Amino acid sequence: MIGFWKKKKDWEFSQEVLEEGEEILYENPERGWYEIYTFPVEEKIDPQELKWSLHEQETLALVLLDLQKFREKPLDEQAIYNIKTILYFFASHKKDVILRPVYDREGKGLEAEPESFELVLTHLIQIGEVLEKEKHSVLVFQGFLVGSWGEMHTSAYLTEEHIRQMWDMLKIHTTDKIRVAVRTPAQWRTLIPEEKFQKREWKALGLFDDGIFGSTTHLGTFGTMMREAAGWEKPWSRKEELEFIEQISRDFPCGGEAIAEADPDRADQILTKDAKAVISEMQKMHLAYLNLVHDTRILDQWKAQSCGKDGIWSGKTLYEYVSAHLGYRFVLKKVEMQVPKRDKIKFVFEVENCGFASLFQEAQLFLIQENEKERKEMLLSEEVQKWHGGSTYKVETETGAMKGNIFLQIRRKKDGKIISFANKNSADRLLIGSLHSV
After folding, report:
1. Which end of the chain is more exposed for a tag (fewer CB within 10 A), N or C?
2. CATH architecture of 11-21+329-437
3. CATH 2.60.40.3020 residue ranges in the chain?
4. Three-state DSSP class for 21?
């Protein structure tokens, strides 16, 4: 018998042009602009009527639960049922929720909150139990119920001991399931000792800022003393607090409201008139979300102001640039292909997160090979949520060669939600090229 060797196939990869597009990826979850939906908890909702108020382009919703009618008593069965119904409604309509239960909606925190601190703790337990047992899509739980607008200021219950008791009560039902955000870095440091911060042992606690750009201190979010003089639990200077927030928000969704200063001629307002400075501060804070309707004064200014960027963003407004970069923004920058052995193909992908922030829930990157006869899918990475804003990452894989088109796709693990790349011509998946034998 005469033996023979089968000739090894040569493979050729035709790569698509890889360029970032200008599209604002509204449908990507956990990021972008939000509006506020307010619900007195004693009232039932009409899901059929409420659905018409939802905006398709927004994946986030700040759900404000008004507890004012219960400032003298625990939540009753009807109120708890209504909260369950509200949370289920937003989950069923694929909206990630920023949840803020409050006693006050008029800036009268001291008047509106319960006279009994024990009742505040009871309400926290009741809401926590609902979140623990019911289906929901809560991404962040903002505040501890108390203070004007639920923003943890102008309250009788903001001593160190009060804050610690509220946190201890709430985290029983939320730790490792829901992220909880406090209003200021000093409040955060009241709850997390410095040694735990140094070891990064604080996954469940973060920040929200409803005074962004309102003043040099973000309306009291920061202090004026240097860290060395203030100590761990007191407010620090602006520069030091921003550096602190930068570390916290790498792994926790940070956002809130951009506010215009009441006196537009004040010297410290030069920041909001300088697009480069605005973008730099948002990058440092790793902003993931902002209020769409407040403050219209500063948002209208951004809509009329150039972003000051070159390339694809040349001629775009600051508002457009911010809209595109809130949260994460994944761009495939480069693809390398090698043929290491018989009919095996090695790919190296280089992905840049051009956004301000990370993706904060587990997601998976897949390689899809497809032709007219078959389709193959391979898991490439489960580390997508660790791709931090402003950084570039490489992913390598080896797979069997197969004639046809090759795609990349990112899906959120908990619900399969598609996360689109920001490359041109990307949709629910990104075509990176085609493979054929020669």
Report:
1. N
2. Sandwich (2.60)
3. 11-21+329-437
4. coil
Rounded distance, CA 28 to CA 420, Å?
7
Position 229, amino acid: A
Residue intervals of the chain classified under CATH 3.20.20 are: 32-325
- CATH fold label, 32-325: TIM Barrel (3.20.20)
Tens of pLDDT, residues 365-409: 999 999 999 999 999 999 999 999 999 999 999 998 889 999 999
Greatest Cα-to-Cα distance within the chain, rounded to the nearest angstrom = 99
- Name the amino acid, one letter, at 400: G
Is residue 146 helix, strand or coil? coil
Q: CB 245: neighbour CB atoms within 10 A?
A: 26
Residue 6: its pLDDT value, please?
43
Q: Which two tokens stand for residue 33?
A: 């602009």
pLDDT, tens digit (0-9, with 9 covering 90-100), for 288-323: 999 999 999 999 999 999 999 999 999 999 999 999
> Rounded to 5 degrees, what are φ and ψ at 381?
-155, 145
**Kind plus residue range of the DSSP H or E element containing 97:** strand 96-102
Q: Read off the tokens for 213.
A: 């750009």
Strand ranges in 360-429 using DSSP code E only, listed in sequence order: 363-370, 375-381, 391-400, 404-412, 418-419
SS3 26: coil
- Helix H or strand E encompassing 282: helix 275-285
Tokens representing 81 are: 């049922």
Residue with tokens 């698509």: 16
Q: Could you give the CA distance from residue 158 to residue 218 in angstroms, rounded to a whole number?
A: 19
What pLDDT is stored for residue 1 in this prediction?
35
Calpha distance 355→352 (Å, rounded): 9
Side-chain-side CA neighbours of 45 within 13 Å: the count stands at 26
- Rounded to the nearest angstrom, the gap between the alpha carbon of residue 224 and the centroid of all alpha carbons in its chain is 28
Give the whole-angstrom CA distance, residue 149 versus residue 34.
17
Structure tokens at 130: 């609902």
Contact indicator for 183, 206 with CB cutoff of 8 Å: no
> Rounded distance, CA 411 to CA 365, Å?
7
Report the C-alpha gap between 26 and 374 in whole angstroms: 32
Cα angle 416, 387, 36; round to 5: 60
- pLDDT class for 267, splitting at 50, 70, 90? very low
Residue 340: burial class (beta carbons within 10 Å; 0-12, 13-18, 19+): exposed
Q: Whose structure tokens read 């969704």?
A: 253
Cβ neighbours around 258 below 10 Å, total = 26
**What percentage of residues in the chain have a pLDDT greater than 70?**
95
